[in-house]
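Hey, I'm writing a tutorial for new members on how sequence and structure tokens pair up, and I'd like a real worked example in the thread rather than a made-up one. If someone can provide the structure for the chain below, I'll link this post from the tutorial.
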Amino acid sequence: MLFLLMAAAVVAPQADTVSADTSATVITLEEALRVALSENGTVRIADKEIEAKGYARKGTYAALFPQVAASGSFNRTIKKQVMTMDFGGVSQSIEVGRWNTVSGGVSASMPLVNAQLWKSLEITGEDVELAVEKARNSKLQMVTQVKQAYYGALLAKEVNKVYRSVYENALANCELTEKKHAASKASELDLTRAKTAVANAVPNMYDSENTVTLALWQLKALMGVDLSLNIDVADSLLAYSEGLAYMVPDEIDLSGNSSLRQLELQAEELANSIKVQTYANLPTLSASFSYQVNAMENEFNFSEYQWHPYAVVGLTLNIPIFTGGRNYHTVKQAKVQQQQLAIQKEEAERNLRVGIMSSLNTMDMAGKSFASANEALESANKAYDIASKSYEVGRSTLTDLNDAQLALTQAQLAVSQAVYSFLTAKAALEQTLGDDYSMYETQSDNE
């Protein structure tokens, strides 16, 4: 009896902590996703990248507007230039200029015709689209990770529940065996086996409790909340067992896959970059304007300076003639990159289809395993009840009861594992297909 009291004292506080923590904030999967979509660091970084690309795009549009600059200068002559001239056969030298020269003005220039510049602006728009798609990919990955972490926490709690039940049953059986041993109805071997079963159940209890803690930490890290925040997951893993079905479409549609969409955007951007290099061979036309004033004096009395303004308006036509084949080879290089991108997209699509088939196969096997494990669980429950009652009245041995407990434990774990495998495979499939997650973002924004 002393052994039972010690075992109960060691394990009971831990069991109470995992079974019910009334101070914890219970969250649903939808709430976890809403928090993660607004607080997750990866998602926030991706949103900042979109913002940065937007500013970069606005910056490139500045090239279409006039570029205006003001300038000014002051020069002090140290040694004047000397001119020598002949006057009546006599050579005379004259110093030219004045000691101080001051000038200032405003200049402006603006492109009028520049096909290469116009096409470059289109590429910056595609940069923004690519950044948006990368952010979408980050959110899809994060949603999948949060779902799998949430399901992992539910699985950990189910496993802990199973092992806690194993411990409680072992404790009850050990107490019964002690009573039977005291009444000379159970052998010393049976009592030793009963105590061993209790001792073996304790490490599994600790391990499963630690797994629950680690699973919740991982979930909190993905949600982007403080790890010290006390949270718990709502419902149970078996609550999702009613939805172990998935309608397989006749054709697999990869149009929503983020990886393929990124490759498509990169292909469009590369095609436009080829046009940019081609347009480099076209003439460009720009306009310019300059207004300058200057004065030359020997003294520093600026109020008496005589200022002489002048202004210039002009057009500049630039016609590329020969660049040593630079543009030609740049275009050739870009076309090779296009071919590489096409091969990469083909390979990515093939791998994605393999991943989809793998997810569908895992879901199918998990559904079948769940049905089989559920039947086994019903039988194991009946077998354990029969073995337990039979052991109480002395019609079966402790070995029979332990065997029934082992079969029950395996069946319970198999049911939970089947549900978990189905849900995680479904989450991975939804990410591959690019299922929409905006419903969680919308609710988060409204809140």
